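User: Fold both of these, please.

Assistant: Here is the first one.
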Amino acid sequence: MSADKANKSGLTDQQQQAKAWFEHLRDDICTAFESLETQDGAGGGAGTSDLEPGRFVQTPWERPAETPTDTSTKGGGVMSVMKGRVFEKVGVNVSTVFGEFSEEFRKNIPGAQDDPRFWASGISLVAHLHSPHVPAVHMNTRHIVTTKSWFGGGADITPMFPDAAEAKTDAADFHATLKAACDAHEVADFDKYKAWCDDYFFLPHRNEARGLGGIFFDYIDSGDKAADFAFTQDVGRAFLDIYPKLVARRMNEPWTDAEREQQLIRRGRYVEFNLLYDRGTKFGLMTGGNTEAILMSLPPEVKWP
């Protein structure tokens, strides 16, 4: 594991701070999303205002031991899911896990080839809205420690009608907020992370992008750990600043059955990416994570024509 000096808990101060931050960000995001659910007329675009305002339901889980003779758990997390009148399904999950990478997986992880032990903490969020006019969104940030230590994450937006003017406006505002977060930190490079996002969230079997992008970054280890962490925090703050505004902007617009049908088809692309290509899905499943939490990102209803 990392040579950084550990405190009495066995974690470095940075690991403790990262874990606490992800939990704090989770709480702030859940509060903001629940507030949208209680606004006057929320979900009124197509009658979902008749539904009860959503509230997050939290479900803790523990990562099981890696061998039959080991009775200890290897960390765990809390899955927070809400279904309401604005959010058809949104999950905001936090986990902190540790143990050893499998032999087949460790070759893909920096610092794990000679020592397979790891520690990982992070937040992962995916939101699917009732309204086809509100873009789906993904955000995650994470801190991973092997013999090396780095931060990763990103956020991206998936409008149901990516060619529409409203989608381009929402995406421009989303990108501008993330750019401001990047520009405030010397360790970050918005243009690089935006291009990385466009390349990563692409479905090669359909030759199309999943959405309208955002930023994606990984293996952030500038040599200044405080600066790397500060940037990671600001990515979370930027998301919390902009996405609730986009939801509030669109959530009460009326929509048609045809628009709903298109939304369900576009969600199919989301499913295809997450099951075929998403590195976070693979990481969670190959490190003994909670299956329900890992697959939380899947939408509640979807169609393939």
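And the second sequence with its predicted structure:
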Amino acid sequence: MAKIFYSMAGEGRGHAVRVRTLVEQLKSQHQFVLFASDQAYDFLAKFYSSSVTGDVRLVRIPGLRFHYTAGQLDLMKTLYAGAEYAWYDLGPLVRGFSERIEAEQPDLAIVDFEPALPRAANTMGLPWISLDHQQVLLSYDFSTLPADLQRYAWLMSHAVRWYSTSPTRTVASSFFTPPLKPGFEYVDQIGPLLRQEVSNAEVSCEPFILSYLRAETPRSVVDQFVGCGLPVKIYGLGEQAPFENITFHPLAESTFVGDLASCQALISAAGNQLLGEASFLGKPILAIPELSHHEQLINAHFVKQMGAGEWVGLEELTQSDIVQFLSRSEAYRRPEWRYRPEANGTPTAMSIIEQELANSAIQSQNGSLVGSW
């Protein structure tokens, strides 16, 4: 049994869902110490303990997150907060990780877009896997995207390099798989990391819309669902009183997956994880990315290019957009997509982790690793 350190970004649920998917598959063979901040920590705390013993331990760390003003992503405030984090928090966090590595002697680290554990792992000689969605910004050929999104990907590729300094292995997880750029052939391209609840779900088509919205979503967006012709189940905004044809639901995993598998269509924020789950289940998708959130815009463009659905900017969404999408939605239903090899990246990710653990054991026997737990 190996010990694995696993750190992640705290923004949204996608990072934490990916992490939990792999941990649930591997925790019977290995021990995990999970490091998370903000929303990721809150999500994982429902499943894992913060005690000093156990097969899965959860530790809260400081982290970066997006900041909003008047319900819209505030890039300047987000960048300022990032600079503060790099100045005040990053150094002590790296030192803390280094001390933990020395004390606990893990066999491997896995990182989902978190900058401190990679630096500590490199300092301590611990092999580590970069496994996230953000690697697509560095390694994928985005020549089919609009010029402004290509420029954004180029700019953010420098941030991705800063986050993931010298990984032992690089894995990019995404529901879209365009060619790799020249020079990035070493990157493993895999599909979204799907939970067993999703991969084993029985798909049906019941007359309601499922929507997942960020907590900062303006009420004016919710109003556009009124009178669209179908009941709408909204997750992400917390429990509220029903409104016209709209009901609001708490984020209970089993309930959400059941609704995703049985809805007629998904109209949702354009996060990679949820879009990957919906495309695996063959659901028609209307992605509604924030117009200032370029990663969501990239995801939305690939939804359309793949023939999985359509997109419209969150701030521009109208009732007419929803009604027209629903009138065309059957053209986007793809029940056969769950059988594509690239539809579910979980088995490949597990295989990569086991390969790196085996390599780590060999290096440890040769005396080149910090130790084995």
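The first strand starts at residue 3 and ends at 8.
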